[in-house]
Write a structure and sequence with these properties.
Distance between the termini of chain A: 51 Å
Structural class of chain A: alpha+beta
Largest interface: A-B, 42 and 42 residues
Shape of chain A: globular
Helix content of chain A: 25-40%
Radius of gyration of chain A: 20 Å
Number of helices of chain A: 12
Oligomer: homodimer
């Protein structure tokens, strides 16, 4: 049997070709700008009329992600299609994949849209995760808590981000109650990892199997939202290499094409646990815009366009800090503190990522 | 008497504001992308339907640069207006300046649109230029050649770029004949400078008078078109400082706001001669995108938007090479040789700048 997806190797998309991007947020915006630098056009598809990425390309479609007629028109315009976030309906990706190459493919999306599927996939690769149990009833939640025997986190299997769809629970009763607040949505209960710090590895795999990983930053979160990525962080050289090898294993198992991010817990004993896989460019990779010859955004475009991957080496140390909610009001001060990026969002709502600043230092 | 232009200080343009750019070529394109990074929108005005900069913003107007109704609409959309090339009709700039702030202003444009006016302006500042004479008749051309007494270059006073409107002449007769091929357009005859190398200094002046200059690259031309900018080049530290001081003198005399470039001849005896002033971002400053925290494009946007200037310091050595005409066919090879920029032009005509590549090296 021929695996069609694997066989469908794309000739490199020539300058002037059109990259389709599902999702018009800041990731789509920065992808679009990276594509433009390479002489490629982008068409942005977004389910709201206003989108940060609409400001950087004249080719734009505002429609529901399930509107088949619009998806068809989108596919007609584009030479290759990608997405900026993993909550695009899988059925839409499947439909588009029948019309034009979608990179990364359906498998990467379906394996990572559901936390339970994702964690099982990671386990099967022999990589470590936090202990977890499937929870489809309040009773399941109680039992799982008893098995984990300590503080735990109930997470909806699908559609969670930035701490949404998560609840920390300290008793079996609390776990059962949390399940009910999620209105019966399928969940997992995850054992609490007493980690030393969090980190991530952002890496790319080309169509020809070439692999390129950026140095893994250390990540700090506040209120479940990334606050700061620092590279180098506390990871040892050996841990960095291990993290890159983990990302490679995951990318290869998914026959992945494009950039992906693997979020990690670094335990006090030095072990690396996979927390989450993001089948896309990632907030913890924004520092690569200034600190690397080829940013994560350009790298993703190169990979999905069938171009040679760029050099992921870091020419400087970097600290990237998000600008969240009303912090954006201090944009003038921020403009003096480093390389400022603002995403063109109209309203600074609490918890909304409005921009980021990257500060470079000489490489240590 | 109040100088209105000097008094009209702009409050900083807030994120979400609109920068108007006259001219939709690669400079407008890279200005637009730099503005987007800062959360500013751009509206591009171009006199042809297709333009590189139209690919990176949805706000675009295609109309003649003298169409008053369109210029008025453009001014209405924009918070501040700039231009990517100096051959915009001065009357249009004057008209726009009555509606919205134009940065840099009319004075910078009129002083630099005409080679004779420009060279006199430079001389009056006490800066050196090649010897030159005004030529408005064939007889003038002969006389001027006799005075210069050696090989010389006849240049039309207006609308020249990339060697267009220039002729090297080796006799008084040739000078007179060249004048006639330019159909009686006012010219200057310029003495040939036996320079050691060419260089340029790209610098910015803010609304508040703040000044920031990039390190001056050494520039190599082929067929009158910039081939390569190298930084550091052969300029000594003292010459670099002198070049920056010259740019500052020029910027201050023009009460300039924005980025300007001063092209220089470096004579064998070490003297720096002003060749040309470009009241805009410049091809010899493209390397700043990768080698500096704040590129010339971002710097120009910051200056004209009334933002604090960014840091012009160079964190790496750099070589920028233009991709000219059919050289763009080798885009795949170029994509592996450094940071590739392609401008989205449809046809690779001879002499047309299609893109550039910047290679970084550790700072020496």
């Amino acid at each position: 049997m021929i695996n069609l997806d694997k066989a469908a190797h794309l000739a490199p998309i020539r300058p002037g070709g059109v990259i389709g991007i599902l999702g018009g947020g800041q990731l789509g915006r920065m992808l679009s700008m990276a594509a433009a630098r390479l002489g490629l056009k982008t068409c942005v598809y977004n389910d709201e009329n206003h989108a940060p990425a609409f400001q950087v390309t004249p080719l734009q479609l505002a429609a529901s992600y399930t509107d088949r007629a619009m998806l068809q028109g989108f596919a007609q315009i584009c030479d290759v299609i990608t997405f900026e976030f993993e909550n695009i309906p899988a059925e839409s990706i499947e439909y588009l994949a029948g019309l034009k190459p979608v990179r990364p493919g359906l498998e990467a999306l379906t394996k990572t849209q559901d936390r339970f599927t994702e964690k099982n996939f990671v386990k099967e690769l022999g990589l470590a995760t936090a202990p977890f149990f499937d929870v489809t009833s309040a009773e399941d939640a109680r039992k799982a808590f008893a098995q984990l025997g300590g503080p735990a986190i109930l997470k909806t299997r699908r559609l969670g981000y930035d701490g949404k769809g998560q609840a920390k629970v300290a008793s079996a009763d609390a776990a059962a109650k949390a399940f009910e607040t999620f209105k019966g949505a399928p969940c997992i209960l995850e054992g609490f990892v007493d980690f030393s710090f969090e980190a991530s590895v952002v890496a790319a795999r080309g169509q020809n199997g070439a692999f390129a990983a950026y140095d893994p930053p250390e990540n700090e979160h506040e209120n479940h939202i990334l606050r700061r990525s620092t590279v180098p962080g506390r990871m040892s050289k050996a841990q960095s290499e291990e993290a890159k090898a983990m990302a490679r294993k995951i990318a290869e198992a998914l026959d992945y094409v494009g950039v992906l991010a693997v979020e990690l817990f670094v335990r006090k004993d030095g072990a690396l646990l996979v927390n989450e896989i993001a089948p896309r460019v990632h907030n913890s990779g924004h520092w690569t815009i200034e600190a690397c010859a080829c940013s994560q955004f350009e790298q993703h475009i190169r990979a999905i366009a069938g171009w040679p991957l760029g050099d992921p080496n870091r020419h400087a140390d970097a600290v990237m800090e998000n600008i969240i909610g009303a912090e954006v009001d201090a944009w003038e001060t921020r403009a003096q503190s480093g390389a400022l990026h603002l995403y063109g969002k109209r309203q600074p709502r609490p918890g909304r990522k409005m921009g980021h600043v990257t500060r470079l230092k000489s490489k240590t």
